[in-house]
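Sequence in, structure out. Go.
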Amino acid sequence: QLQLVESGGGLVQPGGSLRLSCVASGFTLEHFAIGWFRQAPGKEREGVSCISQSGDGTNYADSVKGRFTISRDNARNTVYLQMNSLKPEDTAVYYCAADATTQPFTFYSSGHCLDEYDYWGQGTQVTVSS
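Output:
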């Protein structure tokens, strides 16, 4: 059974940091592009960041650029989202998603992420509050 499991969420004060993990089971994550998304109460889901299969292509939403970093450790079948300088508006449920679609480096270097992902995790809550 193909499964993605997020972890690392929690309650943090403004300015703090969290590292989210997305672990795959039932499939080899290195063959999949990964996206991180978030959804706050009453708001639509938004894309936060994405990373190519090789890890050399990454992109970020403007709202998180310079604060969040996506990375992957294919040997551990895991993708990470390091979140620094957290703000109350970062409060949301964070989801990771995987898709086997392969795009050239130019796709990512021009600022794109995949539009659709086949596999989704259940999400992890991030709350930024004093």
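Check: Helices lie at 105-109. Residues 57 and 108 are 5 Å apart (CA to CA).
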